[in-house]
Amino acid sequence: MSGPNATYDPVSVAALDAAQVADVVTSALAAFAAAATAAELKQARLAHAGDRSPIALANREIGALPPHARKEAGSRIGQARAKINEALKAREAEIAEAEIAEMLVSERVDVTLPVRTEPVGAVHPVTALMGLMEDVFVAMGWEVAEGPELEAEWMNFDALNFIPDHPARTMQDTLFVAPEDGGIVLRTHTSPVQVRSMLTRELPIYVVCPGKVFRSDEYDATHLPVFHQIEGLVVDKGITLGQLRGSLDHFARAMFGETRTRMRPNYFPFTEPSAEVDLQCFVCHGASVGDPDNPCRTCKSEGWIEWGGCGVVNPRVLIACGIDPDVYTGFAFGMGVDRTLMFRNNSEDMRDMIEGDVRYSRSLVGSAR
Fold first, then answer.
1. Which of 83, 96, 160, 312 is the most exposed, fewest CB within 10 Å of its CB?
2. Contact between residue 189 and residue 151 where contact means Cβ atoms under 8 Å apart
3. What is the DSSP string of 279-316?
4. CA 180, CA 152: separation in Å to the nearest integer?
5. Cut 0.85: pTM above it
């Protein structure tokens, strides 16, 4: 319609008739109530409240009415649209609430039921045991010292009083890095860390040195070309062999429970005097010695098990590191971590430690801690 018409009768416009408007509202409310999902309600909204819905088309008719008729028709249509929109919002809220409730039920997880988880890895027993060993000495006030695995020959041998033609300096025992005369080796023990500690740390020194070492050994049940050691070093005034013995006894009890140690004279270039450290068998406690009826497989009925080496730091080593042996003395010791792990768990084959079987790690890591 082009414009207002004073003679236009609103009663004759069906879309604006009160009964017709009431039917439109009733139809819209029924469609909203019948919608069970958000998608169905969207279709009902477009049909009954959209731009092409009956109520929207009726609203457009108001502009063509004469001024005296617009007020009544506008009020009627406005009230109808308000009812439709109010009913639409209420139904939207109901459907949204219902869908959330249904989602909570359908996606609910019963956390009381056991679940199947994928197997996880484990800390390697050697790594765990080294951490335990470090803790023993840190609790005593010592520090943990580390050094490079690729080491200068001087650090690995010369500073530790190995003579130039010592058998350990041959390629049958040591892995040299090319070129062979370059003076670089894969460290054969963690003792170079002790040398570095004496060269760089302020006195007194109380350090424990865990780490990986390399030797040209056979690969069998009791030998590996790559294994792990932990060494200790003390340099202070008035250090005695008795303090070394006490430290080793404490270390042994921390590793194996109630046990004893003994020291047998031996020779190492970097300590003087030197000794081998034996553990009283932690299985038979020496009871199997001389008793053929009750043999002990762990100590072979000898009552003692070889554990490592120790001794008083050789004055020549102190001098090489710039320490006055007339003022300071010290002691040092070293044990195999892998060997200790075998003792603690009655393992018979060191190769099990490097096969990469996580079941082996999981079976031992608890006892390693």
1. 96
2. no
3. EEPTTTTTTTTT-TTS--TTTTTSSEEEEEEEEEEPHH
4. 12
5. no
